[in-house]
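Two proteins follow. First one:
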Amino acid sequence: MNSATISTTCAYCGVGCGVKIQPQQEGCTVSGDASHPANFGRLCVKGSALGETLDLDGRLLHPEIDRQPVSWSQALDTVAQRLQAIIRVHGPQAVAFYGSGQLLTEDYYVANKLMKGFIGAGNMDTNSRLCMASAVVGYKRAFGADVVPCSYRDLELADCVILTGSNTAWAHPVAYQRLVQAKKARPEMRIIVIDPRQTATCDIADLHLSLRPGSDAALFCGALNAMAERGRLDSGFLSHHTEGSDETLAAARDWPEEKTAAFCGLPLPQLRTFYQMIADSDRLITLYSMGINQSSSGVDKCNAIINLHLATGKIGREGCGPFSITGQPNAMGGREVGGLANQLAAHMGFNADDIERVGRFWNSDNVTKSAGLNAVELFHAIENGEIKAVWIMGTNPLVSLPDADRVRAGLARCPLVIVSDVMRDTDTTRAAHIRLPAQAWGEKNGTVTNSERCISRQRAFLPAPGEAKPDWWIVSQVAQRLGYDEAFTYQHPAEIFREHAALSGFENNGSRAFDISGLAQLSDREWDELRPVQWPVNAATPQGRERLFTDGRFFHPDSKARLIAITPRLPVNQATVTYPLIMNTGRIRDQWHTMTRTGKAARLMQHISEPFCQFHPEDAPHIHAGDLVRVSSSHGWLLLRAQPDLLQPRGRVFVPMHWNSQFSQQARVDALVEAHTDPLSGQPESKHMPVNLRRWHTAWQGELFIRGSHLTPPVTAYWSRIAQPGVTHYVLADASTPAEWLAWLNEYIPTEQWTCQSATLGDTGFNLLAWSDGKLQLAFYVHRDRPELERPAIVAAFSQPPQTAQQRLALLAGRAEHGNASAGATICSCFGVGEITIADAARQGCSSVQQLGAKLKCGTNCGSCIPELKKILAEQITLNSGMS
């Protein structure tokens, strides 16, 4: 290995893939780490494109107060002085921190220590509340500890894998590809997908249950009852290792097959097939994610799943267990250090013993005595004026929180909003009084923990730009200015990690699941060289432990697990005459969270370029593909590109979660979502909001390409920005037509300074190219309906101007030169392979995904495009058979 090669961990989902970085003179090359146990060298397209997100465009590089650059000392002094003033007048409960699964464990630890240990309030919560808080409570109720008992290897060893509430193929592609390979090696393995939608994950499913949204708990209660009726319970395990089985089984008897099928909206034969697959499997894994957790009854859904595993003894063995897979790279690390408002550090809680223990360890007599406000409560308290100061770190709640416009209005009234971030302009930084420049992935140094409890190093390979600093340093400096010098003297993140590890083992003696005390004596060099390891790591398990509960002992005081009697219930909000459709939200393949990182990578914008609304054609027959659609709820409205799809269930629509105000005019989906939360976890219901659809009538639609970056969009009712190399690209639409297009453009950008070439096409068609010094400066295309353009050819013209009159005429028409065929819409983002290219290869004889991969490379990296490749092949076979 080249000595300059650096091993680090991907910055995206909870799979926690290992990454190899080879710095170059310009940029770096990114590849998978073949030695990392999470991915063994495989990366998804987002991970492969990490090197394309490292530029400094849009970065926050200097501290700012009221948008004016200041020195670090002035910024830190001001933060401390204003916090002290608020605490002096209103008390510590008037202050809150809001963190992120994007923080490293060391950052998280210092922030939590300052808030809960020294300021003395519990108001430290995290955006992980929005993705896995229900899983945490479910595990704690069942096991006595927040602990994932499984490993990724168990996915490959199972006889049956249930994927529920997760489009794993798109949200966790590398974990999904491990499952794909296991299925190929063992075709007898059964894979069941439970999802109202038919997603890419269904590609390898033996059974897809398109259940009624929100009915998951009833499905698993019915499964428990069915296992009891079939004699598939593990009575020995139940009697020796659990409590609560009698009450839980009695509650499950309320869910016989017929009632369950009706409640879940499933055909009875399909339900029976599901139950038989479970009954026939000795080794069962249930992989669950946001479709389970993001619910007003998410905890009960989690416990219904766990009940099934406990009652059948399918836990603590190879290929067995209830496996919650997290959405962020360090959601698990945040749980370890107490990043959630209902936790203290090291998985300790707010009982008297834990409070006293943490106080002694931190040498503080001001440890908070009670849990703080969770995310939704916290921002309501800001709105109500109860919280006067909030410090937001590495997250974008004005896009990701439910009822997001209400959150925005609340922050606007907050006396002190501090934001530590990488990017200068986000929906949330716009609300900040003080902006603090944090280091980004590639510059930060610390650890993260993935979904299988594996701690990995995230290593710096780039110098910190401008005045960007580590989050732990920023918080420590403020803590010192608040008077807590001795407790926050850290000079290196390894010091923080050692303290965190020592606290995990402090007076533990096996009573707490989280224990990495075996790492508490690492030297700086040993910490820097730390290899991935699954906790616990202590004297009993110095090499870590892949699988927990192998001895049937849990973390309740009597060492027994708890089955929890569940009463299933549907979501609070149901369809009405005014809002007859149910909106589900989620991820798409190539984007991440609120797009502040992935939105910078041009190739990640090519597969799906605009925010969209997917619906069944019969639910809105007047709305056609490519139309713009207004999606409304009782809380707001969006403008999105219509995407009718026969695979979308009737009565339900899907809208992606990613678009923010920097990338689209009106597409922040969480502005539509009501803030209903689970009463036990505080996690909001993000998958079930009643909406209606209306076609939005446009007078014109167009696309604008301009040399340069970060130009403000024209004033139009609809716009979306698409990342392109060296070019600002907007998709535009409006309900009224400007009187004269050139005058309209000149108001936005002075085209009269350039040489222009234009063409008028009928009443509403107008195309224009603007040149300066032989270089293309602007290309503009407007039609009555959405113009059909060959975007790659247009973008390429900005770097390679057309040389002939014929080439310029083709460009003016929005086309590639005759003979240079378009590749079509991007299907494989890893290698930039388009739909037309793939269809052509199929016509020329490629009849399998493998043959397409050999010819075009599509589908040979992350595999996320394989379901779409199969669809194109099937369509081509149908066309060929029709022609014959």
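Second one, unrelated to the first:
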Amino acid sequence: MAIKKNELYSSLWESCDKLRGGMDASQYKDYILTLLFVKYVTDKFKGQKYADINVPAGGSFDDLVALKNNKDIGEKMDKAIAKLAEANNLTGVIDNAKFFDNSKFGNGKDMVDTLTGLVSIFERPEFNFSNNKAGGDDILGDAYEYLMRNFATESGKSKGQFYTPAEVSRILAKVIGLGKVKNRNTTIYDPACGSGSLLIRAADEAPFDIAIYGQEKETTTAGLAKMNLVLHNKASGEIKSGNTFSNPQYLDNGALKRFDFVVANPPFSLKNWTDGLQEFGRFDGYDDRPPEKNGDYAWLLHILKSLKPTGKAAVILPHGVLFRGNAEESLRKNIIDRGYIKGIIGLPANLFYGTGIPACIIVMDKEDAAERQGMGGGIFMIDASHDFVKDGPKNRLRERDIHKIVQTFVNRIEDDPKYARFVPMEEIKVKNGYNLNIPRYIDSGDAEDEQSIDAHLNGGIPAGDVDSLKRYWDIFPGLKNKLFNKFRAGYYQLKVEKDEIRSAIFNDEEFKAYAEQIDNAFDAWLKKSSKKLMNIDGAVDVKKFIIELSESLIDEFRHIELVDFYDVYQVLLAYWQETMSDDVFVLKYDGYMAGAEIVKIFKKESKKDDGKKKAEPKEIGWEGKLLPKTVIERVYFAKEQAEIERAEQVVAESESRLEEFVEENSGEGSVLADYAKEESEDLDAKKIAAKLKELKKQKMTGEEFDVLAKYTELANTAKNQAGIVKELNKALDESVKNKYAELTEKEIKNLLVKQKWSFDIFEGIKSLYDTTSHKIATRVTELADRYENTLPDLEATVADYETKVKNHLKEMGFEV
């Protein structure tokens, strides 16, 4: 049975609760990731011959389970993991996290309970990687990445450098052309690989397995990188520990080894890079060396030296490398003159975990360097600094941002000069003195919205402002004349009342007809994709699957001018990540009949998992495994839903009458004021019932009796009607649950594709058009407000008010 990746992610992150509070995230990540690795390789490789990882006797996760509640659990866990490391030549790589550590896990029973609970967490069914078929698929590697991203977020600015956001990694991999390699002996290298996420994302872009090499200064982080490779089915990749400048690990006959591709996100502006430096010819042929207190160009020159004559690289560096002077200016000139820089991509600020400053991607290409050396060459530049979404304390690139950067760079698209352009060498060298600062070449700022003094004085709306909406007038040629008249030379006058602007636009026939294009484009995509969506099986390549779907969607929306097809792409990809990828994964392994299954929902356990037996968790509800209850209700039980809605409306009306009655009779000195609960605005129903009973027994009538009786009547009515709604909901819930068992595969396919996926995706796309449509109405209204009254009109109004005030004061006996 397949487990959904989001469920696995959630369980993994919850497992961290066992260590939260006891140590910093930058420390406890090592223990969680080590246990995940041991559990995974045990489930996948134990007992198999010729496996990528040898799981020896005494060195498996099963051996860790046997240590639960053992007084020497910490020491023996370290020994078991050491055996696994020794059997695979990974000593000092996967055994860096020491569980026998009193400073982190406490002494005696504290350590036993904590480590026993930690091991017990990974015994849960969702971590059975042999049964849920997650092993061997990207779901495990992606889960590892998920944990590292969260650890990086928790670790903070000073300790999050080990992780390069996957979104940025994917850009580097794509812009250097890894997807087009044909030589199976291709090599890729990262001289500052951290936890290996950038290397892995880059290698994944190649159409086949390529040789992976990484070096990381921190031994523990290098271990994370090696485990990361194994979990991504790249166990043959090499990760070595050591200082890249003083002790480079990849040499060939005494010189730096050369690679086909290099990707890197080195620490920015490294101050101590010269400590123990061995040059290995990195600076040969350059007039200057990188400054001692800033290693940015040291990394750049190391990468260039590590590239083959046909090699390509992409490196993330701070913007300062583009314009700083002195030695860095000299080095920049030399690199530009050699034609090594193919492109520069400016990124948003606050993307990375080690720093908040904006960075750029420098794309280098030795193979075609000669073509860029003369004045006929140039560098392709992109300013993507404004395209991102806020995500907690960091900024994050969306799928649409990644796709736009990659497509623009790879295809050298220049249709938006505020986003990208090819900059000739003459402009770089002669006009700007080798300064590569992106704003010198791309003005990405928004045009200033200027005010017209003439319009404020003499009336009318400037023609320039109206004509700036040309993209709308071109699509809706009759709308402009419907909204505006010529007023005087260079100025328009609003033709409709200001309050009628929106209705005039939204009721325009051309405007309404354009919305049909959105419907038609989506219908065309769905028709084209339905066969693919309804025939998912174990052979489907999930990565290729979503690429084909998204490219097909873009093709259908490329001609819809008022909806940015990159935004349409984002709707699909966001839905894919949140919901659809999990569904496809389940279909791949369990088939469409999984849509007939329901899953129970249990109340989350609040106590810590210490390995001891606990009471069964409480069931609090259920949901469809693939098909949400809301879909089944919408398709098969619309009549019942309508009945419940009518009943709920009756309840709302009854409750409203009750609230109104209470409000009328709850003031100071009123009847109900004496029946309020202490420290609460609620009434004490039991006290009211007891008093009413007493009054009836004594046959006492009057205002108090009438008020309490009426309150009781209204309260009982509302309660009874609420009970009816509850029973209706209960009956509907039972009917829906029974319906799942009756569903055929054909029905499930139809429900999944047309009632769940397409319904949700279309809603997202439709909202894009709604948002874009409101922009024209908002802008026209803004212009109408701005120039509604001229200055002379306003002065006359002020003078009129001033006269009225003076007259009023005079009538009151005041002379002004």
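SUMMARY FIELD: The longest helix spans residues 745-786. The chain is about 50% helix and 10% strand.
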